[in-house]
């Protein structure tokens, strides 16, 4: 069984170099992507949150390829993606609260960390040896179609080099990973634009490990109680949660948060219609949402950070962003972008 796994899959040019295929978001592209994944290849694909760098989660050699391509510290466990709840229930054990959240938010931008099912095929490298698994049924139909074709859980972190800004378009993926992965499916821009919210459902406690595409308030509403914060105390030794690595999502430029004014030459990242003093001296300007809509701001966040960075400004001044709803996740990503490095 599974003897297809030992086949080398990377497309190669005449010199034995890996060449990244650009696949279209249609039946032909999906079928090629699924073949590559089943053979142990690395394929970046769109979800509603960000582009993921996928590998067969049951194949440790394939999963090792993710860490190599991203140059990611290998202690980070990965999210496994499934086409539907039934497939997720074969990999993890869902208590009543986890089941309620799955029913309310899947398919969608929510990841549930649950005890690993006895019959789970997800390899130890994908979970970093933990006895829990992080599972997600993505909201984008194209992603679920791909997962159905693959027929195995697909491990996928964001498709960027470690520490860089998450990709929300296929060209962002190529900028970081061209000729380090087998293929990317071009599905256009992602509509949520932030990674999934991660909830740990272990030991009867519901904890918010990473704010993301589903606001905390919506989850608390379904649970009928408050979420606890951070990793479970028993996880102290374990490879902790989400990008807990301080500096993450880092542009090349310095990042200045809660900016009340723009200094000459700085890039300006705005929100709403207000123009801060000094805006006329800005080296480049982007607005997350003219109308002050946090959903639109989340969708634009990573592309605008990249856009300002590509303008080669020395620093990016970011105006204050409200903290409610998706603002919690936006502010979390911005704090990481600003962390010392
Ligand atoms: O939106 C998303 O979630 C994207 C798309 C591609 O689905 N994926 C993503 O994956 O952001 P990644 O690998 O960048 O983030 C996974 C996070 C990591 O920070 C990891 O620490 C946490 O999930 N994680 C995974 N398994 C865990 C576990 N068993 N316990 C605690 N945290 C876990
Ligand atoms: Mg990431």
From TrEMBL:
Keywords: ATP-binding, Cytoplasm, Nucleotide-binding, Nucleotidyltransferase, Transferase, tRNA processing. The keyword Transferase applies. It is found in: Cytoplasm. It holds the Pfam family Sua5_yciO_yrdC. Its main location: cytoplasm. Signal peptide: none annotated. NCBIfam families: L-threonylcarbamoyladenylate synthase (TIGR00057). This is Threonylcarbamoyl-AMP synthase. It comes from Chelatococcus sambhunathii.
């Amino acid at each position: 069984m599974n003897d297809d796994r030992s086949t080398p899959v990377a497309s190669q040019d005449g010199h034995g170099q890996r060449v990244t295929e650009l696949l279209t978001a249609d039946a032909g592209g999906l079928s090629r992507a699924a073949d590559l994944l089943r053979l142990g290849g690395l394929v970046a694909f769109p979800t509603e949150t960000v582009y993921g760098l996928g590998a067969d989660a049951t194949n440790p050699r394939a999963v090792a390829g993710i860490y190599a391509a991203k140059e990611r510290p290998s202690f980070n466990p990965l999210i496994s993606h499934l086409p539907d709840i039934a497939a997720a229930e074969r990999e993890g054990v869902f208590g009543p609260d986890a089941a309620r959240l799955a029913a309310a938010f899947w398919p969608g931008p929510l990841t549930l960390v649950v005890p690993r099912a006895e019959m789970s095929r997800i390899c130890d490298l994908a979970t970093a040896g933990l006895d829990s698994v992080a599972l997600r049924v993505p909201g984008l139909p194209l992603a679920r179609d791909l997962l159905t074709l693959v027929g195995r859980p697909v491990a996928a972190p964001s498709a960027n080099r470690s520490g860089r800004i998450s990709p929300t378009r296929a060209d962002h993926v190529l900028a970081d990973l061209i000729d380090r992965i087998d293929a990317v499916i071009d599905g256009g821009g992602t509509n949520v634009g932030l990674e999934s919210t991660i909830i740990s459902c272990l030991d009867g406690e519901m904890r918010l490990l990473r704010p993301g595409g589903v606001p905390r308030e919506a989850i608390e509403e379904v649970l009928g109680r408050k979420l606890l914060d951070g990793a479970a105390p028993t996880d102290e030794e374990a490879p902790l949660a989400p990008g807990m690595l301080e500096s993450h999502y880092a542009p090349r430029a310095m990042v200045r948060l809660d900016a009340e004014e723009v200094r000459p030459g700085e890039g300006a990242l705005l929100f709403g219609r207000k123009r801060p003093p000094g805006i006329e001296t800005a080296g480049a300007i982007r607005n997350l949402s003219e109308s002050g809509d946090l959903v639109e701001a989340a969708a634009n966040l990573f592309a605008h950070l990249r856009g300002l960075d590509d303008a080669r400004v020395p620093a990016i001044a970011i105006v204050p962003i409200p903290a409610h709803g998706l603002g919690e996740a936006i502010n979390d990503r911005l704090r990481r972008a600003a962390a010392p490095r």
